[in-house]
Structure formats: structure tokens, C-alpha cells
Amino acid sequence: MTIARLKASLLVLPLIVFLGLFFIWPLWMMIATSVQGGTVRLAFPATAVAIAQWNGDGLPSPDVQAALIQDLRAEVVQEVFGDAVRSLNSQQAGFRTLLPRTVTALRNAGSDATPKLESIDPRWSQPPFWLALKRGMPAYTDANLLAAVDLKRGDDGTIAHVAKDMAVNRAIMLRTFIIAAQVTLACAAIGLPFAMLAASLGGWKRNFLLLAVLLPLWTSLLVRTAAWMILLQDQGLINQILKALGLINASLPLIYNRTGVLIAMTHVLLPFMVLPIYASLIAIPRNLMPAAAALGARPWQAFRHVLLPLAMPGLLSGSLLVFMVALGYYITPALTGGAGDQMISSVIAFYATGTANWGMAGALGLFLLVPTTLLYIVYGRLSRTPLGQA
């Protein structure tokens, strides 16, 4: 390696380290967490060895039950035991009370006495609890990935749908894509005419319009969302103006519903649509539209056959950019939407902070990461496409 190449490598080394620490490593941790098991194995090591020989039919042998008693009597780090309880309870409801009760009874009985598990709690005579214990032992599992799309493994290992009252993730994921698509269409409907107007003007007028688009980016997202909460409420400025103009008699429901989410998110994401379109429009020669008119094309025909195809790369790039950003929005839907308008990011936050189920949060994040990555690849190709090849 020459000195010049070594110097060039040293210049980009901080960037590589930054990407590795703050981008690649967190993504890898999220993927690993989504498929990582082993929490139950750490809490019950003897049971993990014994239950591996059980085929899952009926109840396990006395050796398996004796191994479980041994593990429950042993001193385990409380955090490890809590993680195991949460993991098992996510597969079979009831472990949250079953395991602490059994631990207390076994330790109170003393080391000499060995009571039967069924006498402590009759649930130990039910095979589903033992099957959940066996399924929780592998170091890697697809339970979180399946649960993220409302699926689970049955007792025989086949994949089945969860109960209808528990199947919510796919509906929320679909709702997320629908809201993102609606926001993208709204931004395109507003951003294209705005970018055309800005590109057609010059001097301070163009700068004023661009400043109007860029100024919201310099304001905190939380502040902008809180401002829309004030404007959209029943006695807010928008409803008061509509009442003063005599257009409505009663306040319109503009907040804590889908309307509020779309309005607030469109305002926040509009610059990401306007700027790519504007960049495409200013590269178009100004004499094309007059030339089309001189050849007999009407304004709409000139726009549809000349201007719109040339602006399409910017429109597609802006649409993909807005859609990708909208998929992961959390604060705006959480504050301006109702219970039926929350997006998948709210569910991820619930699992991460509300229940400390990092595996489920990672699985949902992975299903959100995959389409976002694919869209980013498409966006990268569009942004590099020369105007003449569009």
C-alpha cells in the first residue's frame, strides 16, 4: 500500500468507525436479539439438558421434573430469572405466577423435602407448560419472528395462526404502510405544484418559497407536533376560523384521529418531497415548455408530455424518501392520532420500554427494516439516474 492510499484510508477511518458503532452494530444487535433464545436455558441449565431427551408426548419423566426442582432451588440472578419468566409467559400464559409460586414453595420446604410439582400447583400436570419450557430452551428461536406476523409454532412444531383476539401485529403493520402511503400521496399532491412554482420564479421570491419549506426542518419535531395539537383541537385556530367564516356550525374532529395524523405528518415530511422535485425541475431547460406551446400543445398537454416525465425522477425519489421516513414515525402518530391510528413504531416502543421484551421489539423492527432497506436501494438507484435516462 502506497503512502497516498494509506493517508486516504486514515481519512475515511473515522467515518468507518462511526458507521460501525452507530449503524452496523445496533442493526446487528437488533437482528441477533430478534432470534436469540437462551434466556430460559441460562435460568434452568439442568432442565435444558434433561428435557432435550423428552419427545413432547404426555408429561416428562421424573428426571426432568427433578432437574427443574434443582434449578428452581438454585440461586439465580434475578434479572436472568425475570427474563426467563417473561419469555415463557409470552409462549404460555400463566408462567408469570407459576414459577415464582413454585420457587417460593420449594425453598420454604427445605432441602431435605422434595414435594411434587403437581402438589404445589396443578398446572404442572398440564403438558402445554412443559412444552413451552422445552420450546424455550434452544439458544436461537423463531418465536419472535413468527409472533411479529401473528404466527406461532404448535405443539407438534407446525406453524399456525394465533387466536384472533391476539392477532394485532399484521393489522398494525398494514395500517403503518397505509398511513405512509397516504402521507406520501398528500406530500406529492402539495409538493409537486409548490416545487413547480418555486422553480418558475427567481430572485427573492424563489428564496422565500424555499425558506418556507426549509424553516420547519430547523424546528424540533416535538414542537411542530405540539403546535398542530393546538391548531387542530375543537377550539383551535382552524375550527375557529371556519366557524367565523360561516363554513361550519360545529367543530370538526381534526385531532386524535387519522385526519390529525395525516395533516401533521404531511407538514413534517413535505420538505423531503419538495426538495428532490425542485432539484429535478431546475435542471430542465426553461425553453422546453414555450417550445411545446409553439408546436401547438396545450398547457396540460405540455405538462403531461414534457414537464412531468422530466420531473418524474425527482417525484419518485421524493415519494420513496417520504414513504421510508413515514414508516418509522412515532411521536406524531402517538400525539395526534387515536387508538386506531398508532403505527408499528408505537408497538416496538411498547415492547422495548413497557414490557422489556427486546426480542419481540427486535423482530418487529426487523420486519420494518427489510422493506425500508429495499426502498432505500431503489431510492439510491433513482437518485443516481441521469436525467436523460429517466
The H-and-E topology, N to C, reads as HHHHHHHHHEEHHHHHHHHHH
Q: Give the helix tally.
A: 19
The main pleated sheet reads as: 2 strands, antiparallel
**Regions with pLDDT < 50 over 5+ consecutive residues?**
none
Q: What is the average of the pLDDT values?
A: 86
Shape: elongated
Helix content: over 70%
Number of strands: 2
Distance between the termini: 40 Å
Strand order of the largest sheet: 1-2
Estimate the strand proportion.
under 5%
Radius of gyration: 29 Å
Based on helices, strands and strand pairing, what is the structural class? mainly alpha
Question: Could you explain the architecture of this structure?
Answer:
The structure is a single chain. The longest helix has 33 residues, at 3-35. This protein is mainly α and 390 residues long. The mean pLDDT is 86. The protein is elongated, with a radius of gyration of 29 Å. Helices cover 70% and strands 2% of the residues. A hairpin with a 5-residue loop joins strand 1 (151-153) and strand 2.
Structural descriptors:
two-stranded antiparallel sheet; elongated; 390 residues; mainly alpha
Write the layout of secondary structure elements.
Layout: H1 3-35, H2 39-43, H3 45-51, H4 62-73, H5 78-91, H6 95-109, H7 117-120, H8 127-135, H9 143-148, E1 151-153, E2 159-161, H10 169-200, H11 203-214, H12 221-232, H13 237-244, H14 258-281, H15 288-294, H16 299-327, H17 331-336, H18 344-354, H19 358-384
Antiparallel strand pairs: 1-2
Helix pairs in contact: 1-19, 3-4, 10-11, 10-14, 10-16, 12-14, 14-16, 15-16, 16-19, 18-19
